[in-house]
Amino acid sequence: MSQLNKTWLVAKWEFMHFFKWKQELISKLVMLAIAAVVFFWHSSQEFVATDYKVSVMAQNAPQGQIGDFIFTQANSSQDALMAMLQAGEIDALIVAKHPDSDTTALDVYSQGKHGWQNDLAAIIEQHYAKQVTQQLGLTPAQLQQLQSPVKIFNQYLDNQIKTEAKTSSLTAIGVLALMAIGIFVSFAQVFVSITGEKQQRVTEQLYACMNAQTWIDGKILGQMLLALKAMAGTLISMVLFYSFMQVVIRGQSLDLTIIDWALLPWVLVFASLGLYLATAFMAAVAAAIDDPNHSGKSSFMLLPLVPMILTFIVMDSPSGWALTVLSYVPLTAFAAMPVKMALVEVSLWQPLLSIAMTVLTCWFVRRLAGRMFKMGMVMYGKEPSYKQMWKWAFS
């Protein structure tokens, strides 16, 4: 069997060891069941009477039915109305706090906290805003002008900046979130896989079948595919959830313009390279851990999250030098370049250069991980020092 076939065999085993299609199917069915429950619950609310009775003890208050609320001027005392509220005969009671004051302040009483209270507050505010407008002799257009005195449109001399209409910021944040999910999945699975094999003392048997580099190559590839699967599943779930909320709950037409479809192939390439780089590093560190419960090296496996953190910090200035530098540094380019592409227009050579530099770095880190993996997996009882790990990597 060739080395390539052995590598693919290990990768396939790593992937299928953690990928359980039955659990995946069950999780998707549970998600669909929850969506069905929400749908039928939302639909049933349309057939339930939603008129709320509101008694009012205030001057110039709303009267009659407005929306789902029926306002009635109270003729009874406040104590009697409070008793009616307690008995459920009315849903809310509005009482003026200072009837003789020029400032309108209202107490809104209800039995508990309900979702319709925000709608009630909005109706009351809108009603009194109209009254103030009439008292001041303002037209609705003048009131609107007071509320929004100026509209600001950002115009950039740099034509590469994408407009807000493309929801570029949401795309950039989504890219970072998906990559963080992939790295967390890879961290968990690599840690469990390698430390488990080391504690079970199966290294010698595996070394008899293949060399350490083939073994680590298969592990990296398998865990990378598993992380990509997690990212793809998360993206699909997010799109389905957004579509469900937009179409079913809000009753709007499906609009997926928030997704930059042209960016997705680039995200896939950079995510694959970033996950390969991160998985190779984490595999090398995990091989040096003897006891995962007490090792101080476990925290080093979280270092691959640093590129996402740095990119998130500087993404508010996509034209700045910080994000530009991170986009070309091989250790951070997999996170920074797709975020920059989501925020500004870039020339084709820029992502291609980042990809080329990251590929070379992946090959170099792969060789380092193979050397560290070879020595670390056969070292039992004592963890190597950082000096020893450095010597293994560059020997």
UniProtKB/TrEMBL annotation:
A cellular component term from Gene Ontology for this protein is:
membrane
ABC-2 type transporter transmembrane domain residues are: 65-364
Which ranges does the record mark as transmembrane?
A: 25-43, 170-192, 226-245, 265-289, 301-328, 348-365
Query: Which keywords belong to this entry?
Result: Membrane, Transmembrane, Transmembrane helix
Q: Spell out the Pfam families in the cross-references.
A: ABC2_membrane_3 (PF12698)
Give the InterPro entries listed for this entry: ABC2_TM (IPR013525)
Q: How does it sit in the membrane?
A: Multi-pass membrane protein
- What is this protein called in UniProt? Sodium ABC transporter permease
Highest lineage ranks of the organism? Bacteria, Pseudomonadati, Pseudomonadota, Gammaproteobacteria, Alteromonadales
